[in-house]
Design brief:
Helix content: 10-25%
Number of strands: 21
Strand order of the largest sheet: 12-13-15-17-19-18
Largest sheet: 6 strands, mixed
Number of helices: 11
Shape: globular
Strand content: 15-25%
Radius of gyration: 23 Å
Amino acid sequence: MDISRRDLFRSAGVVGTAAALGGLGSLSADAVAGARTLARNPHATRGKILAKGPAAPGGWRPVVRADGEPYQVRTNLGIDAKHGRAKRRKPLIAFAQLSDVHVCDAQSPMRLEYGEQTSSSAYRPQEILGAHVANAMVKEINRIGRGPVTGKPFALAIQTGDNSDNSQYNELRWNIDVLDGEEVRADSGDLTRYEGVMDSNPAFYDRTYWHPEGTPVGLEDDRPRSEFGFPTVPGLLDAARAPFQAEGLSMPWYSALGNHDGLVQGNWNRQSTSPDYQAIAVGTTKKVLANGQLTTRQVTADPNRRLLSRAEWVEEHFTTTGTPEGHGFTGTNRTDGTAYYHFDRGAVRFVVLDTVNANGFDTGSLDKAQFTWLQALLAATRNRLVILASHHPLQTMTNSFVGNVDPQPRVLADAITMELLKHELVVAWVNGHTHSNNVWAHKRSGGGGFWEINTASHIDWPQQARLLEVTDNKDGTVSIFATMLDHGS
């Protein structure tokens, strides 16, 4: 079931699938489902959640705490769960997934806020707080520290793409530094003031945008405050830009490339010369709406807004105080400019894919060389369950665009699904991109298959991560528990 990013998501799944693992016997499918939970206790299976409170007259809703939600059992793969498995099961691994963090330079000339008149996501009032939201999620993951079902400590965390918003160096740096636990200052250009669409500069004031500092003398209140009930919050812009000490994940963390990490605004290759995106990014001219008209304003240039190539994006992960060095990316990735890899943790092999088409567009696919690598890796895998991770889910793996940047033919959803279903060790694929929470079953003709676990974003409601736990039920089945996690606001 698809859920709108702006609607309250009320449930999610904890799942399992058919597999065979040496030492554990022949493993067949078990689907055990979960719930959106803010665990107040590291050992709780459900606690409190963040929810939308009652609407004010204009529609503004406060965020409130609400009761937790129960776990559900999913049986979409057609194999019944075995009775008594809760007493037998042995935890294999627990880990956290963060997706679509979208740490954003809200003052960048590359922002498209002027498109908000025709698009619902060109501008988000909350995007100035992306680094702070990520830090709040890190704090909550650390505080919980272990799987809420099994109690097994988290072995790792993984970001499944769109870690930054616009492929800019400074955005990626803020993202890495938040997860590493460095001092972070999510500010650019003139560090003494905010230069963007939310300030109260009367020359560039537009009612489309929320102005938390208030209305310039002689002008009308903006629509978010006058029509929807947004508050006035003096000092918010300066507080959002101020340096803060990030907590940093207390576990190793890994990354996958998303379309917003690898493409300008998640759609265009930076090598385009019409327009010259790099010149715009590091320049001084920012397009904005002012008094209902499209215009430009001059902002302070910042070389740290430069756009990164895939190779540069990967390389930046080796400048880190966190673990592991490179955050999954390897020497081969550095040499070849690729962004796919695998690593093993106990009984699980993680396979991290690069689903971004370097030629452009926001949907995903695999290049032929990567697909060949995946086929060989899966064929050679023995005695480990396989969990894939990527930015795009299969339903969006439709990008067949072949261009000069990457002339390789693209491999799309049907071919990828067919290949994965050949391998019983493949039990799950965790991903993001949709900014919503979904669980999809991919069933094999003889029974079993794998689960696709699609997790919401940090930039749009409900701003959630997911906790995943894999268990051996000691009866020929495995379970995957998935618990939704709200940040520690």
